[in-house]
Structures are given as C-alpha cells and as structure tokens.
Amino acid sequence: MLETINLSKSFKGKKAVQDVNLYLDSGESVGLLGPNGAGKSTTISMISSLVKPTTGEIKLNGVNIIQKPEQMRKVLGVVPQELAIYEDLSAYENLKFFGFIYNLKGKELEKSIQQALEIVGLTDRQKDLVRTFSGGMKRRVNIAAALLHRPEILILDEPTVGIDPQSRNHILETVRMLNELNGTTILYTSHYMEEVEQLCDRLYVMDHGEIIAAGTKGELLSILSTEDTIKVELSKMDEMFIEQVKTIEGVRKVEASQVNLKIIAKKGINLVSELVHLADQYHIQMVNFHTESPSLEDVFLHLTGRTLRD
Amino acid sequence: MKSVIWAQFAKDKRNPLFLLLFIAASILATLLFAGGIQAPTTVAIFSEEANAQEIEAKWQKLLNANDTFQFEIVSPEKAREDVRNGKIDVAVKVMEMDYRLIAASELPSVSFVQQHVEKVFQREAQIRAIIDANGNEHVRSEITSYLENPPIQIEAQGLDSEEVPNYNMSIQLLYAFTFLIAMFILGLKVNHVTHDKVAGIWNRMILSPMRKTGMYCGYICYSFLITLFQVIVVLLIFKYVMNYEVGDQLWLVILIAAFFIFSMISVAMLITGFVKTPEQFYAIYPSVIPLIPLISGAYMMPGTITNPVLLFVADIFPLSHAMEAIVSVVFFHAGLSDVIMSLFMMLLIGVVAMGLGINLIERRSS
Amino acid sequence: MGSFIKKDLLLFWRDRKELITVLVLPILLVVVLNFAFAGLLSDNANENLDLQLAVVNQDNELETLARLKEKLMEEGSVSNSEAEKMVEQASQLSPIPLLFNYLESDELKSWVTVHELEEGEAVKKVEDGEIDGILTIPSGFTVDSLYAALAGEVPATSLKFKMERETNNNSILFDMIHGFTDHLNFQFVVQEIGASDAEVFLPEGGFEKVGTGESFTLSQYFTIAMGALFALFLASTVATKTGLEIRQKVFYRIQLTNSNPILFLIGKMVSTFCLAWLQIMFVFVFSHFILDVFSDRTTSFWLGVIGIVTILSLAIAALAAVFTSISLRITNIDAANGIFMLVILFFGVVGGNFVPIYILPSWLQKIGEWTPNGSSLVALTNWIQYEELSSIVTPSLFLIGFFLLFTVVSVAIYPKRGKTS
C-alpha cells in the first residue's frame, strides 16, 4: 500500500538519503535497520511528509502523495524519536490534545483515549503529570499519542531508545499486538538487531543513506549462505598448526584467540576430517567443535564492514 | 486552533503564580516610578558663613517657594560627600546674597536646579536692592502681595476649551509599564512555538489534519488572550481598587491595548523566526524589549524625542503608536475616529511582522 | 574542572548569533541612548529646539493710551492731569511691544519662530501640527493690564496660551512667556514702589567643583549603566542554557559521573565571568571609540576600570550560578525565565541602570546600593570622577561580598542528585 521510488534528500548539497526504494504491504511489519546516522530518520520524515524529498516519489495505494500530503497524514501514525509530548500535562490531557488536533470529539475521543491508554498499559496513571513518569512510561505515552486516530500505518522511529529492558519488552509487545490483532501496518526503525528480528516480517538495511540490503530475515541470511562459520576449541595453540589450517582448500579466513579458532569456509566442504588429521600431526586435541549459522549482525558486518553500533 | 489554546491553557493553569507575578510586577513598577516622579527632587543646601543657620533658614524658605524641588539643610561635609559619591547630583552652598552649586556631573538635573536657584537669587537681589534704597523692610511684603495679583497675567488653555488638557505623567507611566510587562508576557507565550518545535510536538501537529493557519492562530490567540487578561486586570485594579484616573473610555483603551498586543505578538513571532531554540529566544528577547519603551518615548512627555532617525525607529515598533493613542484617549478625550490611524499602523506592523516571522519559521523547518 | 569550563565556553562559541547579540546589543543601546538624549537634556538644550509659536493679537494698540486715560478718569476718578501723567509713565511699560521685543530678541530667535496669525488660521495650524502653541492677546488687554497696574486692581483680561495638548515644546514655550510676564510684573512693582533707580547687586552664582574630579557626563552614565545591565542579562542567558542541557540530557550524564556539583557550577561561573568581562569591556572600549566617552584618560584610569569590571564580572558569574541552580530546580523553564527577568528588571531599576536613581523614592535608592549592578555603578562613577582608590573600596567590597554570597547560595540550592526537574 505504501511505496517509495528513488527517494533522495540532500541538505545543503550533502546527500543524506539516496535512491531509497521500499514498499509496505497492508498488514505487514517491516523493519528499517541501520546504525545511527544511516538516514533512517530522514527517510521516515520524508514518508510521513514532514520533509520534502529532493527527488523521488512516495506512493500511497499507487498515488503519488508528495504534493498532497493530507491523504498520507490521515492514514499515518508517527511515533517520533523524541518525546513529543507536554511534560506539564497529564497523560490523559496529552492524549486529549492530540485527539483534538485529529478532530476527535466527545465520546469518540474519550473512547480513543481510553483505548490508546489500554494498549500502552497506562490506564491507571492517566491523571498523573507526564513529568512524573519514568522514561519507559513517557515513551509509551509518546506511542499512545500516535494511535488516537487509529492509523492504518504506524511508523515508529527508534521507540525504545534509552529505556530499560522491561519497558522495552512492553513496547515491543505493544507493537506486535497492534500488528497482529489490529492489522496495523508497521514500519519500525531501530539499530537494535534483536528488536527487528523479533518483530518484523521483512527488513531493509540502510547505511550511508542507501539501502544496502532488503528482504525477509531468511533472504538476508542467505547472503551469507555461501559460507560456514566453524568454531573450534583446542587443547593448546600452535602457530604452525594455524598456518596449515589456512592452506586447507575452501578456508577463507582463520581467526585465533588463545585456544579458540574461528574458521570461515566455503559451504559444504568437509573440514572435519582435514582438521582431525592436522591436529593429530601437531599432537593437539580438539576439545570442542561446532558449526554456526550467520546472524543478521554478521550480515551487516559483511555488507558494511562495520558493526551496527559503531 | 481551539486545541492549541486548550493545551496551552491546561499547562498554564498549573502555574498561575507566573502570571500573578507579572501582574503584580506591572502594578509595583507603576507605583514605584509614578510615585518617584511626583515627589519633588531633594536638593541639599548648606552654608559655611559665620551666621550659617540664619542664612540657611532664609534661603531654604525662599528656594522652597516652588514645589519642583525640595531644599533641605545639611552639613557642608555631608553635602560635599554625597555629591562626591554620586548619591545626589547637586548641592547648593548659600552665602548672604550669593550661591555656588556643588556638582560633580553634567547631568540634566543639575541645570534644572541651576535655573531655579538662579531665578530665586536674582529676584531676591532685586528685592534687597529696593529694600536698601527705601530703607524699609515692609517693602518686601508689599512686593509679595503685589505679585500675588500682578497686572499682567497669563493662563494656559486648551485649543477649544477653557481647561488645559490635563496631561499626567504618572498615568502615562502606568500605561508604559503595563505595556512593558505585557510585552514580556506575550513574548514568553509566543516562545511556546519554539518550545513545541524542539519537543517535536510541532511536527505531530503538522502530521495531523489541523491546518497550519490553525496552529499559528492557536498560539497567537492564546498569547493574545493571556496578555489581554493581564492588561485588563491591571487596568481594572488601578481604576477601581486604587482609584487611578486611567481614563473614562476604558473600552477604547482596551481596544488600543488589544491592537497593541496583537501587533507586538507579531514582532515576537518575528524574533522567534530568527532563533532555533527557546533558550536563544530568551537570550535575545528580554534584552531587546526594555529598549522599545525608551526609544518610543513612553517614559517621557510626548514630543520629548525630536531626533528624526530615532522617531523613525520608534515608529517601527507598535509601542509608540499605542502610547500615542492612549495619551490622546486618556488625557485629551479623543474618540475612536481620532486614534484610528494609530490602530491602523499597529495592524500594519502586526501583519507585516507576522508574515515575515511565519515565513522565517516555515523556512527554518523545511 | 577545565572540561566543564571548556564545555560552557564552547556552547557559547557555537551559538554565535547569540554571542554577537550579547556583545553588540549593549553598545548599540549606548549609541541609541546618546543619540536620543544628546542635546535634549544637556545645558544647551534650547539650541536643538525649533519651536513654532503663533501670536494672535486681538488688541487694538492704536487707541490704547487714549482709552486708558479715559478709563482712569471714569473708573479711577483720577483728575485729567494726573491721568495724563500716569499714562505717560505706563506707556514705557506697554506690555505688547515689550513682549514682541522679547520674542524677537536674538536670545530667542534661534529656537523660537513667531508667526502672527488670525485665530482661525492659528488653530488650524496647531491641529495640523505645524505650530506648537498659540499666544492670544485678547482685545483690551493692554488697557486692562495697565489700568490694573496703575490702579492696583486685579486685571479683567489675561493673556491666553492655547495648546492642543501638553507637550515638552508647549511647556517650554509657556515657561518662557511666563518668565517674561513675571519679569514685567516685577518691573511694575518696582515702578509702583518707586525704587527703579536702586542699585542691584546680582549674585555671581556658578559652580564649585568637588575636589579636582572630572565631571561626569550623561554618555558616561549610559556606558556604565548599560554595561552592568547587560551583564545581568548575561547571567540569565547562561542559566537558561542549562535548560538546554537538561533537555539534551547532558545534565543527567554529568550528574552520573559523580562530579562534584561545584564543578558544574564553576564551569558556569567561569564561562559567565569570561563573557561578562568581555561584554562590559567591549561596551567601554567601543563607546570610547565611537562616542569618545573617556577622552584623554590615563592608563591607570583604564587599569582601574578593568579592576572594577573584573570584580563586577565575578559577582555576575556568581549570580549566574544562583540562576543555574534555580533553573535546575524549577520544573518550568518559562517560570524560571520569568523569575530571572523580574529579578533583573528589579536589580536594573533599583540599581539605577534604567534611570538615574534619584528619581526613585529614597528607600529604593538605598536598596540600589545593595545590588551588584548598583555597587558597580557607584564604584565606576567615583572612579571616573576622582580616580582615587579609597573611593572605590567600599563598593568593591560590596561586589566581592555579592560574589561570595551568591556562590554560597548557588551551592546551597543546587539540587541533590535525583531531585532535578
């Protein structure tokens, strides 16, 4: 239902986002993954019509909406990264205000507020000033404020930044529930791999303003599918032994630390017998041995040469 | 629009102290200054002659005939010390028939005192001469009574009325201070735009179906209502509680105040357009605001400022037009038609500044 | 500690628009004020005036003396010969020619323009703002006033000064004409008593300077008043920046490092000190170059100024620390700023930075010395005039006292961990 075509944005000649193509199907939960400064926030600001793209198109149900953002705004709920709520108002008053600006009135408004409060689990504390809330609770009010007009698409920009794991789980659960029970389409931005893995059906990986990979989790992992990672624990370490391992056909990389070896090798070659043979020659015993599947973290490392939290 | 007003009000009703403080400040400032202006300036006199006491008493009586200055006898040491330390601008050393002014500065107050003292001494010298020539002390009372009803008289009148239009500096100051504080309040309120911008609430509103005009109107209306509330409360207190003569046409005064507030909100909006954060606003706004009444001549008698450049600068700000209208209405019984030009000027400033300000704010956010 | 100071100074440096405002605004103000008040309130104020006075003469001068004689004989029952003698005597003091002589004298010519007009025309010109005021000489004025002078009665007619509204120009015109009539009346008394040949010893008058001090000018007042006033504003600006640090959560981070709270405050104080010092010196130096405020002063004079500015900056820095502690405690940044503004306005007013303090009630003047800006004003005023160390010791001690007091207060009200807003 939502699609961007070659979306780009430059600030004072500096390219922040370049040729971003992504789409969201109705009811999907899509993650946008990337380190800080990758251009995620700019991308979703463009999608939510806060920032005008330098070039490119944004289509909602096939219609370009850059010139008429009202249509987009109607179906969209945005949870900004910052706490865009009044600290000097109570949770209830905040929601009432944000409901007002979406033209909700009377019973309908009251119902929406109570529903939103229930979703984020703040029904009991609604009369308290937001100022008195914990960081996690403030984040939840921040989310609730975007739910009042029952958006079809919910964009969350790093909604878990800087809060404790418990609150974080609560928020992730809330998002999952919105997606699964209400059928809300989710675009979830984060630099936490686990969150995106846990929540999203599909994901895009951004770095330096560009999308460098896209697909389901499985598809992304298969980027690394031509390689296996084998971890070996040895009884002792021997330089010569490592040199020999490196010469085995199909081995691409060997990392050694103390008595542990990490070997990255072409998929499908039979390393075990070669290793056992070599170990025998050097009078080394293999204490532990296992093959690891790559993680999304590895995919990112592979694609960008850096980890997500750089 | 209503929603913005509602939210701003909901926030402020938890901090009513803030507004009360400002209302109290406008009243206090008026009391302090207006009172200070009315009280005569005290000038020290002393004598170092042999019969000092006698001389001091004689001149004190003669000098105090006029109520602009209050001449008080002090010791020569104290007078010199006080002048020296800047506690008083001028002291007068009196002799039998002559005087010296003791001053350390060239401040304007010194020459005012000088004019008065010179006149009194010259007159006394003439009287003394007559007495000496006649050898008769009774001449003095004769002269005094003659001068009480002199043959040539002059009276001041209004253009078409017998009475002189009763201009009153304290009342003008009352309005000047009320407006000064009003400028502070409305500035703080307009600054909520920058507040909500840095908090991200502004973006949330943009994403809502609410129109931009509605958003701006909300902030403007709220600032307007709160400030107008302050002005009306202050005026009512002065009129009904403290019995000041704030003018008979209160509705017209409030209308002028309303135009002024709108116009000044626009100027504040323009300043908001130049800054990124609420803190920057606080660095600039409070240091600019106290200048406006100064250059607009709000603390001085109308017509005191004659420098054309300064008059031009003052005309750019709404305060000069507001004060002109207020002075006409309060002291000279002008009607709506007489102040329509001032109202129009404030409206014009308001519209232009608002246009520029909103334009700048919008340009910043894109 | 160095890192705190560096951080605060850098924060200012990055925000150059604000920095420039803080540095340039006071200078601008000094220039504007000089501009506004130059000439207006100084000794030769009248030279800059250009007053327009309309004179409406309705008195028929030609038959005056004949009518006066008639009146004296009819109403005063004076004999013909006596009346003739009196008229002869009075003709020397005929008020209207004397008045015109006065109005057209060289003394007034340069700043008063007299227009002889008909009443209707004059009123119209006043309404159009072309003319400041109208002096009307009513019909029969000369006869009435001369008769009054001779018969010792209250005159039936008087001169009328008409104005649309009371303005500065009008007051000057009225005072001027009133001064002249006073003078004329006195001449009548003298004639009445018959002592016109008495020898008058006019007072010499003049000034006696205090000590050997330099005189203190309005430009100098504006310079030191604005310098100190804007230093006060700076204190609140620095404190307001703390709001930014809270918003950006930097303050939490700083608290978490377990740094001594004093370090945070010292950072604020040192940066305020540097800025305030720069700002005030800027005002002094630029005012001097633009307006020649302190011409021909010695190096030791400037050293003294630097000394006073330095301790004033210390007091301001400590005030900024108090404001910072307050802004860490008060939940609402607007409320905090409102309080700062009111405090500064109060300090500014009673300290004599907005208006010379002698227009304030005396109890307020006394409080004025108990503000940092007020003390510095006293110190600088004395130093500009006498350049004597002894004259600035007391206010300097006051300033140091403020520095210590404010520092202690700021530390005392600095929030304990977990209590910030």
Describe this structure in words.
The complex is a heterotrimer of chains A (310), B (366) and C (421). Helices cover 35% and strands 29% of the residues of chain A. Chain A is of the alpha/beta class and 310 residues long. In chain A, the strands form three sheets. Chain A has a six-stranded mixed beta sheet with strand order 6-7-8-3-9-10, sandwiched between helices. Chain A starts with a strand and ends in a 6-residue tail after the last helix. Chain B is an alpha/beta fold and 366 residues long. Helices cover 69% and strands 7% of the residues of chain B. Chain B is built from 16 helices and five strands. In chain B, helix 1 packs across helix 10 (212-241), helix 2 (16-38) crosses helix 10 (212-241) and helix 11 packs across helix 12 (278-288). The relative contact order of chain B is 0.10. Chain C is mostly helical. Chain C folds into two domains: 2-39 and 217-413, no CATH class; 45-191, D-Maltodextrin-Binding Protein, domain 2. Chain C has helices spanning 2-14, 16-37, 64-74, 80-91, 95-103, 106-109, 119-127, 141-151, 168-193, 218-247, 250-256, 261-291, 299-329, 333-350, 362-368, 372-386, 389-413; strands spanning 51-57, 112-116, 133-137, 159-163, 207-209. The radius of gyration of chain C is 32 Å and the shape is elongated. Residues 41-46 of chain C have low confidence and may be disordered.
List keywords for this structure.
heterotrimer; A: 310 residues; alpha/beta; Rossmann fold; Alpha-Beta Plaits; 2 domains; 6-stranded mixed β-sheet; 4-stranded antiparallel β-sheet; 11 helices; 35% helix; C: 421 residues; mainly alpha; D-Maltodextrin-Binding Protein, domain 2; 4-stranded mixed β-sheet; 17 helices; 5 strands; elongated; ABC-2_transporter_component (chain B); transmembrane helix (chain B); ABC2_TM (chain B); ABC transporter permease (chain B); transmembrane (chain B)
